[in-house]
Amino acid sequence: MATQRILDFLADRRPDGPCLVVDLDVVESNFNAFRRALPDSAIYYAVKANPAPEILSLLARLGSNFDCASVAEVEMALAAGATPARISYGNTIKKERDIARASQLGVSLFAVDCVEEVEKIARSAPGARVFCRVLTDGAGAEWPLSRKFGCVPEMAIDVLETAHALGLKATGISFHVGSQQTNTEAWDQALADAGRVFRALSEKGIVLTLVNLGGGFPTRYLKDVPTAEAYGRSIFDALRRHFGNCIPETIIEPGRGMVGDAGVIKAEVVLVSKKSVSDENRWVYLDIGKFGGLAETMDEAIRYPIVTGRDHEEKQPCVLAGPTCDSADVMYEKTPYPLPISLTVGDEILIEGTGAYTTTYASVAFNGFEPLRSYVI
């Protein structure tokens, strides 16, 4: 979590206001762990998790590919040193002019989940490779993904058949088992669905070659999570089970699992109060909240580890809230968070495991608060 390099940086620099500090040594260690765990799968880092140029440049040097959700992210990956062949445009919802721009930049691999998207790509990126995303239930994920993306496997057959008919290269299937997926077996059913699509299209003379296993690989928050090696073993077993000796090319898209535990947010206590004399819970207000980068506390889905200088003292549950004039800016209330009774105004705290999905979720200037500052060391 908070590495000595991060602690030394905060002690030496004393940055004012809330900030994220990311340790690149941890990112590199995570990349190597994924490479060892799934040696036959190409790594496509999910740029949306944290697009800091230093992170992208490091991963590009290490040989990573990149999963991009927009033209802007495509341009970031290229600027970091990736070639177009190492980029996937993984968003299934794209403007036609953005498809055309990505194609002009050399990107040739696109995600789809409906015939209409296939038609856009056929017009704007003729001859491109496409993979179709199928729906999964996301059971076991702490941040499940909705039905917004993907189609049922039966429809995927029609989508890829249409792509083939329109001159595109029907390449494969993708899915996402849900972010912060703690069940190592979650990939099994999705791979069973992928296998059925592969076989159905093979009977039609269309040979698929790629399975995009998506992301979902977790980082450690308050609970231990399986190792990358455990996920690798489970996924390989499922591939053998559903594809036999004809295992396709596979790619993975780690985001949270790549950078989540590499980052720590330094924050400050602004106020400690109660709503009544008989109130059982204190309210602890920080100088960062949902609008400052902690959006994943929505519905209390992600519970970040919080470290204070008073952790050796007695703790009691409290409601944890952000500083803005918005009643939704409360992180933990349904399940109050235990913090030291002596915690007081001006105390600094560390919110660990915040390297992913924080800086890019932060608002630009809600209530006049500046976006979350980031330091990469």
Automatic annotation (TrEMBL):
<dbReference type="InterPro" id="IPR022644">
    <property type="entry name" value="De-COase2_N"/>
</dbReference>
<comment type="pathway">
    <text>Amine and polyamine biosynthesis; putrescine biosynthesis via L-ornithine pathway; putrescine from L-ornithine: step 1/1.</text>
</comment>
<dbReference type="InterPro" id="IPR029066">
    <property type="entry name" value="PLP-binding_barrel"/>
</dbReference>
<protein>
    <recommendedName>
        <fullName>ornithine decarboxylase</fullName>
        <ecNumber>4.1.1.17</ecNumber>
    </recommendedName>
</protein>
<feature type="active site" description="Proton donor">
    <location>
        <position position="325"/>
    </location>
</feature>
<dbReference type="GO" id="GO:0033387">
    <property type="term" value="P:putrescine biosynthetic process from arginine, via ornithine"/>
</dbReference>
<dbReference type="InterPro" id="IPR009006">
    <property type="entry name" value="Ala_racemase/Decarboxylase_C"/>
</dbReference>
<keyword id="KW-0663">Pyridoxal phosphate</keyword>
<dbReference type="Pfam" id="PF02784">
    <property type="entry name" value="Orn_Arg_deC_N"/>
</dbReference>
<dbReference type="GO" id="GO:0005737">
    <property type="term" value="C:cytoplasm"/>
</dbReference>
<dbReference type="InterPro" id="IPR022653">
    <property type="entry name" value="De-COase2_pyr-phos_BS"/>
</dbReference>
<feature type="modified residue" description="N6-(pyridoxal phosphate)lysine">
    <location>
        <position position="48"/>
    </location>
</feature>
<dbReference type="InterPro" id="IPR000183">
    <property type="entry name" value="Orn/DAP/Arg_de-COase"/>
</dbReference>
<dbReference type="InterPro" id="IPR002433">
    <property type="entry name" value="Orn_de-COase"/>
</dbReference>
<dbReference type="GO" id="GO:0004586">
    <property type="term" value="F:ornithine decarboxylase activity"/>
</dbReference>
<comment type="similarity">
    <text>Belongs to the Orn/Lys/Arg decarboxylase class-II family.</text>
</comment>
<keyword id="KW-0456">Lyase</keyword>
<feature type="domain" description="Orn/DAP/Arg decarboxylase 2 N-terminal">
    <location>
        <begin position="26"/>
        <end position="259"/>
    </location>
</feature>
